[in-house]
Amino acid sequence: MYRVLLVDDEAIARTGLRSTFDWEKYGYRLVGEASNGQRAMKWIVNGDLDILITDIAMPVMDGLELTRRTRELCPWVKVLLLSCHSDFEFVREGIRLGASDYILKPTLDADSLVAVLDHMRLKLEEEKQMQRILTEHEQQQRLNKKKAAGKMLFQALSGEPDALAKLEAWNRNGPYLLAVLQLESDLGGAAAGGQPKDWQEEIERFMGQLYDQAPEALAARLETDRIAVCLPLRDEANGQASELEGGFRLPIRSMMGLSRRYNSMDKLQEAFREAAESLEGLFFHPDQQILRAEELPLTADSAQERPAAELHALRAALTVGNMDISQERLQSIMQSWRPGRMKKPAVLREAEELLSLLAMFHLPGGPPLPQIREVGKLRSVEEVKKLVLQGFHALREEAMRHPVPESTLHERIVLQAVRYIKARFTEPISLQEVADEVAVSRNYFSELFKRVTGHNFIDYVIDLRLKRAKELLSTTSLRVYEVADRSGFNDVKYFSKLFKKMVGMTPAEYQGQHRK
Description:
By secondary structure, the protein is of the alpha/beta class. It has helices at 11-20, 37-46, 63-73, 88-97, 110-157, 161-171, 187-191, 199-213, 240-245, 268-281, 308-319, 323-335, 344-360, 381-401, 409-424, 431-437, 442-453, 457-475, 480-487, 492-503, 507-515, and strands at 2-7, 28-34, 51-55, 78-83, 101-104, 176-183, 218-223, 226-232, 254-258, 290-292.
């Protein structure tokens, strides 16, 4: 509803306007009334109106002065003057000052008032629409310029000399910070059947909010959900740097890693490395949203590699079924997952190794173990620990129900994989997919499969597909391309060539031979 303010020094006139006209029925709301212009100024100063209905002749501040001040403070407000016949010169002056219309008091009735108000409302809506279009155009123009500058930042981060020189000129050789931001992932929602996040829309919204808060900043998209931001610090006295360090007001969560302060674009890549490492460091600080490079602990390269004896000790405890010792070994390994001792990639890699190790002792039909691919989706070290312990507790529960394994560990993993392959070999299937199914790493599964079956994965799948093709060729009248498709080959030429190489004759010859 449009907000209306009534101003008239005659109380009976205000009462008549207020009570004889159904304001809400026609889409208007009375926000107040005043007996002169001076008393009406509190609404004007606060901007709490869209339409002003005012008498011209009033004490203290008349309607003309009120019109002038209203148009100065609230230029969008439409002013309706109420006048007597003898006020026409004043009406003309009011129109010159910006009043939209006038009504003679003796002729004022509901119909004439509705007509004038509706005309004013139409003008208000047109002006709002025009302002919206202009604002969107200005924002788009700004974003287009920023996108071009963002491309320059991306090229500079890649080490292109020309882009670095242009960026140095843009920054006027001044100090700057570099930030790497990551928007919240939606992998969990997508996996659960929800709609995947529209990252393009999220990034554009983020850019707009970023430039509203820090107009001098430059941003470049790095990956699906990551952005690099270069912020000049020449306006430090005005608090621009502190705004960036304080985080952005976003409709979605974000994390940010900040570099140290640098004074030359020659150090841009070093600043980028620091900011990226700061962002990765938040993996160990799930309760924080921002981490500065100055807060990062020193991590020795030698600390990234764990002595093999610790993993061997865990494997040995699992092999003999001592779950208490196994839990102690596992906890000891995870205690070193802390800043200064290990970095995020090393923790994730080790967590995958631990889940692969647990999967070796998993019996078919037991409680499901976490999938290895889930590790990379986790945002904090505590979530990773929880996932690994979930796998261990599932294994412990299984060990209590089946203390004596019925087959070797290696054979159980391969047996489960073979069942999976035989159920799906006519569809596109990959080594990674099967490794995920049996919850071991890709490389480990490849070696284990070859050791147990005597065949590598690809040859085993091809052999199954060729056997299915022979069966179809000898028992049906399907065409060769149909046989290829139903056997798992999506290229009939490749199928025919491979069939002849492996069988010694073409598919057509083989089919003809078995029809005799």
